[in-house]
């Protein structure tokens, strides 16, 4: 296998911070190195690992979960969510700058935001190595970084114009640190109606109806919500689609047997319901 293109990593290297000493990183061949001599090899798949120290407690998604997610996303079922997320990153699609997605997974939402903003660069950050490999080929302007957001984002202070968190954990203090003064934090969360037709029959993980209030509480002290958009629509899902939507998230560990899935109509109408919240720094 030939080495992957590393131009996206080279383009954003100056925004990345060494996880050992916080100095900015510089690209040299297939290595990122800081002024103190700490160096990080770029993997042949095109991502760089900025995980250091003891093993992270975060496991991230498995390769099988990411395969299911990529197949489901490739079917266009979540395209309206991706479009609304990209719009929230705005307002100027031609503004230069860099957008980071935390818990990027397949890089699907970051790629959508970059497609809508031709002058913008992207950083896809995930703690799972299978995700980092996928994200390295998600978009020509997306750099892929393996890192644990809960330990701290390996990004210099005040350098990003937007951060995305789509169905992913959040670290508000770190996001506030890396955003510019007028930067945006765009968070997509499922409502209690999301996939409701599948939750009961398949024993999927439910959504806390108080999730929005708890989200704003965790953001307080760092961010204030400035906009909210509800994206809700019906999807026609085949049994294969249902298997993928179950297998791509935490419900993969909690659902009932395949026999229950085959009892569903084919196709089945399923609700997509996601809230896109945009925050500015307090």
Task: Give an overview in words.
The strands form 2 sheets. An 8-stranded mixed β-sheet has the order 4-7-6-5-8-9-11-10, sandwiched between helices. It is globular and about 60 Å long. The chain is α/β, with parallel strands linked by helices and 282 residues long. The protein has helices at residues 7-12, 63-74, 79-89, 108-115, 129-135, 172-178, 196-202, 211-219, 239-247, 258-262; strands at 26-28, 31-33, 39-41, 47-49, 97-102, 120-126, 142-146, 160-166, 179-190, 223-237, 268-281. It is built from 10 helices and 11 strands.
SSE blueprint and pairings:
Layout: H1 7-12, E1 26-28, E2 31-33, E3 39-41, E4 47-49, H2 63-74, H3 79-89, E5 97-102, H4 108-115, E6 120-126, H5 129-135, E7 142-146, E8 160-166, H6 172-178, E9 179-190, H7 196-202, H8 211-219, E10 223-237, H9 239-247, H10 258-262, E11 268-281
Parallel strand pairs: 4-7, 5-6, 5-8, 6-7, 8-9
Antiparallel strand pairs: 1-2, 2-3, 9-11, 10-11
Helix pairs in contact: 2-9, 3-4
Short descriptors:
8-stranded mixed β-sheet, alpha/beta, 29% helix, 3-stranded antiparallel β-sheet, 282 residues
